[in-house]
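User: Need the bound-state model for EPU:
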Amino acid sequence: MDKLLIKGQNQLSGSVDISGSKNAALPILAACLLADSTVKVSNIPHLRDVTTTIRLLAAMGAEVLIDEQRTVEINSSTLKSCEAPYELVKTMRASILVLGPLLAKYGEAKVSLPGGCAIGSRPVNIHIHGMEKMGAKILVEDGYIHATVDGRLKGAQIDMEPVTVTGTENLLMAAVLAEGTTVLRNAAREPEVTDLAQFLVKMGAKITGIGTDVLTIQGVKSLKGVSYDVIPDRIEAGTYLAAAAVTQSKVTVKNVTPEHLFAVLEKFKEAGAEVTTTANSITLDMIGRTLKPVNIKTEPFPDFPTDMQAQFVVMNAIAEGDSIVEETIFENRFMHVSELTRMGASIQVHGNIAHITGVESLTGAEVMATDLRASACLILAALVAKGQTVVDRVYHLDRGYEIVEEKFHKLGADIIRLSE
Ligand code: EPU
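Assistant: Bound-state model below.
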């Protein structure tokens, strides 16, 4: 298992190019199943979850071509199977995203039911109930969701509670080929949902209300292949900006959409950083400034994202004063806290609230990554800590951060990967 060895307290400087968004690429690749001809998707990040999705599409019989420029061409007219097997789903929950497209296009799907995960139980009941409302017959048996429909899915009125990102995406993909009109209420408004909707519209789907919490979809009979560029990864960008904040550095993230990070940038400013933006870049300057503690409550977009919570816990851990971080999306997303405590942080977790008292410095230690964003937070802690940190189980990080050690190295961090 790979590990990262990081020697802390280097100041960072310069700029980093942000990759395409993982959480936009995954549903868009699944949506390629809906097209009658070849789809070309660009700005695809080279990540483990993306490779898993491509393997899944290929295993079902789609023809996939990948070029050096991060472009993937998918022709799913050759599909032979509508099954997403356990071996692939167990490594990536987002495999559930093929359920909607398979059912809408082929009238059947057999998808392994995703299990729990490190950050919470993460049920998919809203995906299933929504498809049942559209006329699907669904049986959960032997760990698999067996879904079928006679003819086409039927448009329906669907209220989703709580707000769910992949649930909205799955039902959106199911609705675009359904007969009649579907209304999705309390829909997720995350930029990744909007990106998927815009991709579907380019393929010929009829969707109104994009970017709002009510999506109205008038089903069409077929969708065509198109070329499409995935949006930049706002969480990757936010993570590098947080690295600049903790190391009192100045860093620019390039190829980003600053509006996608509005709530996060406001919190960086509240924490004492100077933040400047252009149309497609963000610079965070923390040189000579002192980190102030900021209270955080995670909420669906456009509010503060759960995927940036762990990074702000590190900032607060070394800020001057006390703060409260409340996690409202996932029930178990504070696993980074015990590792940070081993590095000298002073944090108490009560239920879904972390009470943090800033300390003067962290010290390097051997720590274990438990999920994707927890891993990112441990890297940030290591970058500012005194001495050396070894982050184990880096495979979590490889699911969501492209060439992470190269990018940090270019910014001046002392970081190397130890491969075993
Ligand atoms: N929920 C239900 N029933 C459902 C679906 C969701 O109760 O049928 C609950 C969940 O248990 C959770 C809440 O709704 O408490 C929100 O979960 P959501 O469905 O929005 O999460 P997700 O779609 O599984 C996506 C991202 C996550 C990100 C969340 C929240 C992808 C592939 N994953 O997950 O990304 O944290 O939305 O924004 O898009 C990550 O990248 O590190 C990551 C975990």
